[in-house]
User: Which sequence fits this backbone?
DNA sequence: TTTTAACCGAGACGGTACGTCACGTCTTGTG
DNA sequence: CACAAGACGTGACGTACCGTCTCGGTTAAAA
């Protein structure tokens, strides 16, 4: 065979070798499974079958279940980090929460729970997640506050740090511990009763 | 929590029959193990050995690992629920956090993480924990706010609800996700920069 | 339950507890499988399923495939070690070979091949087999020669050792290497052209 | 062995192309490995590494492990098939056994065991080995008897067949099953107590 | 006291999933 | 274009833990 069946695409995933194709299939399968059955009940055999891969291949690429899930979540996180400018601070905050709402509605609650569980077991994973996923959130929060300061909605002295301290905490508490939906009422309450008062103080 | 499901015996286990003696030994062993190795790595075989009990006995008394841990945590929670009146709102809040600090220092972080993990798997446990443990925290928070209103530190319109929304969220986030210590600086920050401003608004 | 469902048999396998029942089921399944598919293709999973046992149970009782097969073969060997007195040396020898013929016809060829293969890997097994199985054969051979000497068919100086040197060698060669049947012609040839001439020399 | 399937090239691989160079390296590596670790524990990966070859190349040239080992053993066999005329029947027999002794001392025991094991799995290999290797032994035995008849040491009616029936059987039994050395005492015993008496009867 | 029944420890059991290893195939890139 | 290098799917391996079950022995109340 003179031409590969894959090289036909001139660009798009430039070095998309078999290697990467397998990684991708496995990560996708992991995301599906973790949402369907949760982290704990996702077996490596099931993962291998779903990804049309072999367990050997999986363990060749990752150290264990935790590492796979970490990478999968990180990937998913990168895909959706819009951070739209709605023109007002309140709008930006609600938009940010809306993103979380949509994510949860898709079943990411189980996924997040799975990841946090995995983080308790695997320190390397925990560090990774903190550095990459949470840091992504932080950057978004900072951008929201910066824009508000530029608009003159907030004093330059407003403590933007507070948002990414409080917002993720309460989101996770609601999702993971209380297991209540991230609905419009909750978003409004969070923004109007907690975040804005603290920022505008 | 005014009445526990177990506290009914005023004289602490006066006629401690073999039955109760076994329950106690197993619960103690569970607490030890969950702190030492975490929920996930606590095996029932290890638990049985540590408690000098048989797995049959364990499964005779509880449905599974989750149920044991739930009861153990509940028990531990009942032991330490001071809620002292320090004379000021700020003092009460710091005292409340101090309690959490001490608990964490003893290794309860792993325990809490374990319980939350178990809650994802076992719905009955989750409901139980929400009703009993979290409700206990809520009552404490309410009491703190009530006393502040009586003292005139807070307007009667102050939203006491906010405390037990925000405080546990941020505590858990710090302990379970960020894995950072609940130190004095954090307590002060939480009280002075977040809780008090919101209550006194 | 005051009386066990098994104790009813006063003798016959006096201590036939669950323990031994499992061993027996597994050994029987092993014999079946090794004859059906050979030693190499007998998987432990298949063995577990066939014996309605779990792999854990198998590995609790034996070190590995080799050890199971060793015990199974030893057991089978013990079951059939007739060594009948036919009245003549030639008759005894042919009877001895007839036993081998029957065994082979039942598919024991594959079993023996499997065991010898396992012996190359597992030294403990090899020693065990040499001591127990081959020694059983040796005793039978000695008995045949002793009876012939008593009858006066052989001089007391006849070297009985020769039988169990030559006979098993040629049997195994024919079965394992040449893969030819142990038929009547072969038995006659072995007895009349080789064994009797050497003994009567 | 008058004609081999490979000997057709009179000039011994005169223009040893890369093709043949690879075959040779792999066969040599196979001989080394099978002697070092045995047939079972010789992995194809190890073989490829040892021969500085790729597994693809190996599987391009042979069907599997068995086929490689078959060819390697055949090659080794052809290298050493002296069959010297020592002037006496007894001398020829001992010389023949001496050859086996030397071979065994070099570690060919493991090799032979490996081949016999492979023969149980691979019928094509088994047939090949029986036809080529064992037939080689038979021809040597026949030659020894023929010379003895010519010398007048044996009657023309002596059954030469007996040698290659008994001799390889007892050699293999001793090597593979009993795992005892092929020492001088054994050779003498075999020749003086078994082979010569039967031939001279 | 003697019986009887509940309870206990010990631990074997059938399962499920784990992470590893080797086989034989297939792909990529170099000489 | 054959090759080395090595990733891949497959499938068996031996281990760990789960939750169930059966066994004797011990302790309590009932006879």
Assistant:
């Amino acid at each position: 065979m003179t031409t590969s069946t894959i090289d036909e695409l001139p660009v798009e995933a430039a070095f998309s070798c078999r290697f990467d194709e397998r990684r991708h299939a496995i990560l996708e399968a992991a995301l599906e499974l973790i949402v369907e059955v949760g982290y704990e009940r996702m077996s490596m055999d099931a993962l291998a079958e779903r990804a049309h891969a072999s367990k050997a291949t999986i363990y060749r690429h990752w150290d264990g279940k935790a590492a796979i899930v970490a990478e999968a979540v990180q990937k998913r996180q990168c895909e959706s980090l819009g951070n739209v400018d709605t023109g007002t601070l309140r709008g930006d905050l609600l938009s940010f929460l809306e993103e979380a709402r949509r994510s949860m509605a898709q079943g990411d609650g189980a996924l997040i729970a799975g990841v946090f569980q995995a983080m308790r077991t695997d320190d390397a994973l925990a560090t990774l997640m903190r550095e990459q996923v949470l840091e992504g959130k932080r950057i978004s929060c900072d951008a929201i506050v910066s824009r508000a300061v530029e608009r003159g909605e907030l004093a330059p002295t407003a403590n933007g740090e507070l948002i990414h301290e409080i917002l993720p905490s309460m989101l996770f508490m609601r999702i993971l511990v209380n297991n209540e939906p991230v609905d419009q009422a909750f978003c409004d309450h969070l923004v109007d009763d907690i975040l804005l008062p603290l920022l505008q103080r």
Summary: Residues 18-19, 22, 45, 48, 52-57, 60 of chain B lie near DNA strand E (CB under 10 Å from a C1'). DSSP finds eight helices and no strands in chain B.
